[in-house]
Amino acid sequence: MSAIANDLAAFILAGGKSTRMGADKAFVALDGRTLLARMLDLARQVTPNVRIAGDREKLSPFAPVVEDVFPGCGPLGGIHAALKSSQSELNVILAVDVPFVSLALLQYLITRARKSPKAAVIIPRSAEGWQPLCAVYRRQFADAAEKALAEGHFKIDALFDQVFVEAIREDELETAGFAPRIFRNLNTPEELAAANNQ
């Protein structure tokens, strides 16, 4: 574990309604392990300071839990709660349903974050757009998130015009060895079944 890992926290966003999956995504299994277990293991490889953003009653057996300050506001609410609770300058934010994200990608993002002290967000941008649920955020992003949430605006991407963002574009990701499919998330039983049959 890096000696400077204490400047780093990681949060798994597991507060979604999972309507399309028909079951709580945190607890569906891929290759015999729940998505939550997979993402917690991944996060713990970069920092011992790992928490879950979601429902405390349901998730507290697995890791410390942070609950939304603005409930029912989607992923931005989870990011805001995570950053407000964090004592670390750098915060890895991961959705529970992106099981193909690799340790190497997280290390790449964290390294870039440490080299970009002015960036509030260090974030991949693939051909499909921003990847805000696989990114590194500085605590200061909580201020922009709180203002947006208080005004009833829940789109994460809309805030990237208001803060300094370090975008890691698809060509750079591919040069570094990361294919765009690494960001694929699992939303439906069909997508889960396809992933289990690979």
CATH architecture descriptor text? Alpha-Beta Complex
Which range best describes the helical content: under 10%, 10-25%, 25-40%, 40-55%, 55-70% or over 70%?
25-40%
Beta-strand portion reads 15-25%
Tell me the structural class.
alpha/beta
Q: What is the CATH homologous superfamily assignment? A: Spore Coat Polysaccharide Biosynthesis Protein SpsA, Chain A
Distance between the termini: 32 Å
Note the total helix count: 7
- H/E element order: EEEHEHEHEHEEEHEHH
The total tally of domains equals 1
Please write the CATH class name: Alpha Beta
- Give the mean pLDDT: 90
Shape summary: globular
Q: What is the structure about, briefly put?
A:
By secondary structure, the protein is α/β, with parallel strands linked by helices.
How would you explain this protein's 3D organization?
With 198 residues, this protein is α/β, with parallel strands linked by helices. The chain has a single domain, classed as Spore Coat Polysaccharide Biosynthesis Protein SpsA, Chain A, CATH 3.90.550.10. Helices cover 31% and strands 20% of the residues. It contains seven helices and ten strands. The protein has helices at residues 35-44, 56-59, 75-85, 103-115, 141-150, 170-175, 189-196, and strands at 8-13, 29-30, 33-34, 50-53, 65-66, 90-95, 121-126, 129-130, 134-138, 165-169. The strands form two sheets. Strands 1, 4, 5, 6, 7, 8, 9 and 10 form an eight-stranded mixed sheet that branches. Strands 2-3 form a two-stranded antiparallel sheet. Helix 3 (75-85) crosses helix 5. The longest helix has 13 residues, at 103-115. It is globular, with a radius of gyration of 16 Å. 40% of the residues are buried. The mean pLDDT is 90.
